[in-house]
Amino acid sequence: MENIFEIRDLVLNYGDKIALHGINMDIEKNKVTALIGPSGCGKSTLLRCLNRMNDLIDNCKIEGNVAYEQEDIYQKNFDVINLRTKVGMVFQKPNPFPMSIFDNVAYGPRCQGVKDKSELEKIVKTALKNAALYDEVKDRLRESAMSLSGGQQQRLCIARTIAMEPEVILMDEPTSALDPIATAKIEELIHELKKNYTIIIVTHNMQQAARISDYTAFFLMGDLIEYAPTDVIFSQPRERKTEDYITGRFG
Fold first, then answer.
1. Which DSSP category does 25 fall into?
2. Labelling 27: which of 7, 183, 202, 219 has CA 20 to 30 A away?
3. Residue 157 placed within a domain
4. Residues 141, 124 contacting (CB under 8 angstroms)
5. Residue-wise burial string across 78-96, b where 16 or more C-beta atoms lie within 10 A, e elsewhere
6. What is the CATH number of the domain that holds 194?
């Protein structure tokens, strides 16, 4: 068992509001970790701490320690751009760029200086295949990404992330805007992706967490209430609050 993230005593404030109270958790490499809990409980806030997206929010103050591969990502002079390459993010709503399908996936590698046409083609093809999208779009690569369905757009965003060769993929409710069929495809994809990537997913859907994750963390009002293997959380939770949430007594 190898941890990719180690979080110690993480406290986050937005101005006067405390969003996370002293979070401690380790995230294991090449596993799917689901963050569950009611709206406003700190799930997405924690997710954004892992690639320092909270840096972009005014009045956001962070204390404690977040180590990525044993290096504190909040230390002075830490290379945030490199961190965001290694720790990619897929958002709640698909957000393809207004350009072709090919150019969406090639965008990141081009920004990193990849100019060779055949190398770009190889990167794009591999990323689309790994995102289970290539067979659907291989004859349409020069068409606008906006012509894709919502589910295809989300898989394109996953392909765009994969093209950067990350180690971790953060997913913030990646299926909440999708229909059940598109959701099932993304869940299948997550199952495949964990062979090569560590995935941390925020989800409101407890059935989804139960289906796709190896570990589940339950958050409530900025506190980490319980964190354990998913089958334990859903069958024998230690905490009464976890049981009440999972059985639908609140939330």
1. E
2. 183
3. no
4. yes
5. eeeeebbbbbbbbeeebeb
6. 3.40.50.300
